[in-house]
């Protein structure tokens, strides 16, 4: 296949000819891409471009084609083409010999070199500013424009295809059956949407109510927890207040006794001062004689005070020893109290979880029911462990089995073991004994401080 772009007064064209298999010929306008001619019309278009026909110099264009043709031809066609080629060669031979020899050939070569130097450099590169360089720039620019326009054409073609598809779809959608089907579908969808919207509103309302109930439950749990803690703290404070009241009453009593002693001492001091004044007046004349007696009395007084001080020191040491034995850490008592509360709670839970049985007799009932040999009174709620035996007169024996897991038993045993260890570490046998001992220790500490 051979393609050639030519420019005539009518515009630019691309001539395409294919030989051997699938022979064809066509002419396309380069500006618009429009197919101008094909097959025989293309051959006529090409012939119209060649001046003088195949008998002139332009006939040389077909010489090689005639030689290399592989299709079968008649002898007459081959002889005719051979005569044409001979005539062409004879007519051209003289002109070629005239051009290729002598001064004319040198002039032609000089003219060609001069024309060539205007377009390319000595190394064969396009000369800047020349027609060849301008043609290359124009070619590149046109190639870029061609690529841009091809992309634009592709995009527009895709848009046209999409428009045609949309138009066809629009025609389908505008049919009465389609419109009725869409209207029915829209109504059904609107109904479902309204139902879903109403259901969503109900769900939001239920979620809000659930959130409010949860908040109320959480608030109630917090208030119950605070109440339980306040009640336990109040019990502890009540015990501490009772102990403090006892200490306060004892301190007031002792303060009153001390005030009475001070008042008596003041009276004795006043009397002593008066007596001293009298004694001083009386002993003025006997000062020298009484110095020895006063020294003796002072020595006796100092010995007595020393004995009293020694007795007080001994009492203090004994009180400190007793206080060391009686003192119990407050933390141990708090742990013991927490353990007692835990044991009571576990026992309450265990008691509440125990199975029970009760019976209500008819007014005219002839007999009674016994639980493990003991009569079960009307309306009495009696608990049992493991299993129990109901004896019903006239019916038989009913065996009740709880089969409940003893989950709290191990916890109670562990809590009681902790309580026993705490009591053993404190040297008491109960929480009340520990508190009494702590109160006595506080009283002893107060006495020791006094």
Describe it for me?
By secondary structure, the protein is of the alpha+beta class. The chain has helices at 40-49, 63-68, 75-99, 103-119, 131-173, 176-282, 287-326, 330-353, 407-426, 431-449, and strands at residues 2-8, 11-18, 24-29, 35-38, 356-357, 369-371, 374-376, 382-383, 387-392, 396-401. It has a 4-stranded antiparallel β-sheet, with helices on one face. A 4-stranded antiparallel β-sheet has the order 7-6-9-10, with no helix packed on it. A two-stranded antiparallel ribbon has the order 5-8. Helix 8 packs antiparallel against helix 10 (431-449). The protein is elongated. Residues 63-68 have low confidence and may be disordered.
What key attributes describe this structure?
450 residues, 69% helix, four-stranded antiparallel β-sheet, alpha+beta, single chain, elongated
What's this entry about, in short?
By secondary structure, the protein is α+β, with helices and mostly antiparallel strands. The protein has helices at residues 40-49, 63-68, 75-99, 103-119, 131-173, 176-282, 287-326, 330-353, 407-426, 431-449; strands at residues 2-8, 11-18, 24-29, 35-38, 356-357, 369-371, 374-376, 382-383, 387-392, 396-401.
């Amino acid at each position: 296949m051979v393609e050639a772009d030519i420019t005539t007064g009518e515009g630019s064209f691309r001539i395409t000819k294919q030989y051997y298999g699938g022979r064809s010929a066509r002419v396309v306008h380069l500006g618009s891409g429009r197919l101008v001619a094909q097959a025989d019309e293309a051959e006529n278009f090409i012939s119209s471009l060649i001046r003088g026909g195949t008998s002139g110099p332009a006939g040389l264009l077909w010489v090689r084609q005639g030689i290399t043709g592989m299709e079968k031809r008649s002898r007459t066609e081959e002889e005719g083409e051979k005569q044409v080629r001979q005539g062409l060669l004879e007519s051209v031979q003289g002109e070629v010999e005239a051009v290729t020899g002598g001064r004319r050939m040198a002039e032609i070569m000089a003219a060609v070199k001069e024309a060539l130097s205007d377009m390319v450099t000595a190394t064969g590169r396009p000369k800047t500013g020349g027609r060849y360089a301008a043609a290359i720039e124009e070619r590149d620019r046109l190639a870029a424009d061609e690529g841009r326009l091809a992309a634009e054409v592709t995009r527009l073609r895709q848009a046209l295809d999409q428009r045609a598809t949309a138009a066809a779809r629009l025609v389908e959608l505008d049919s009465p059956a389609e419109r009725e089907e869409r209207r029915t579908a829209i109504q059904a969808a609107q109904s479902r949407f309204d139902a879903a919207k109403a259901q969503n509103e109900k769900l939001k309302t239920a979620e809000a109510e659930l959130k409010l109930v949860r908040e109320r439950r959480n608030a109630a749990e917090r208030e119950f927890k605070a109440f339980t803690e306040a009640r336990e703290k109040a019990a502890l404070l009540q015990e501490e207040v009772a102990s403090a009241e006892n200490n306060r009453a004892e301190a007031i009593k002792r303060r009153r006794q001390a005030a009475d002693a001070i008042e008596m001492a003041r009276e004795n001091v006043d009397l002593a001062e008066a007596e001293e004044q009298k004694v001083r007046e009386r002993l003025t004349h006997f000062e020298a004689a009484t110095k020895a007696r006063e020294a003796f009395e002072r020595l006796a007084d100092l010995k007595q005070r020393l004995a009293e001080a020694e007795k007080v020191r001994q009492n203090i040491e004994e009180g400190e020893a007793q206080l060391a034995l009686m003192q119990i850490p407050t933390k141990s008592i708090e742990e013991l109290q927490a353990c007692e509360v835990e044991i009571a709670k576990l026992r309450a839970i265990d008691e509440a979880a125990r199975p029970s049985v009760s019976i209500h007799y008819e007014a005219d009932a002839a007999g009674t029911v016994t639980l493990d040999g003991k009569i079960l009174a009307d309306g009495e709620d009696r608990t049992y462990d493991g299993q129990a035996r109901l004896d019903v007169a006239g019916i038989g024996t009913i065996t009740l089995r709880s089969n409940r897991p003893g989950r709290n038993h191990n916890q109670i045993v562990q809590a009681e073991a902790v309580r026993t260890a705490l009591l053993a570490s404190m040297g008491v046998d109960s929480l009340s004994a520990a508190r009494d001992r702590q109160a006595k220790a506080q009283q002893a500490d107060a006495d020791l401080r006094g």
